[in-house]
Amino acid sequence: MIKGPIGVFDSGYGGLTVLKEIVAQLPQYDYLYLGDNARAPYGPRSFDTVYQYTLQCVEWFFSQGCSLVVLACNTASAKALRTIQQNDLEKIAPGKRVLGVIRPTTEVIGSLSKNKTVGILGTHGTVQSGSYPIEIAKFYPEVKVYQEACPMWVPLIENNEHQGPGADYFVRKHIDHLLAQSEGIDTILLACTHYPLLADKIKQFIPADIQLLSQGKIVAESLQDYLDRHPEIAGKCSTGGQITFFTTDSTEDFDNHATTFYGKPVKSSHLQH
Ligand code: DGL
Question: Residue 191 C-alpha to ligand 1 middle, in angstroms?
Answer without folding.
Answer: 9
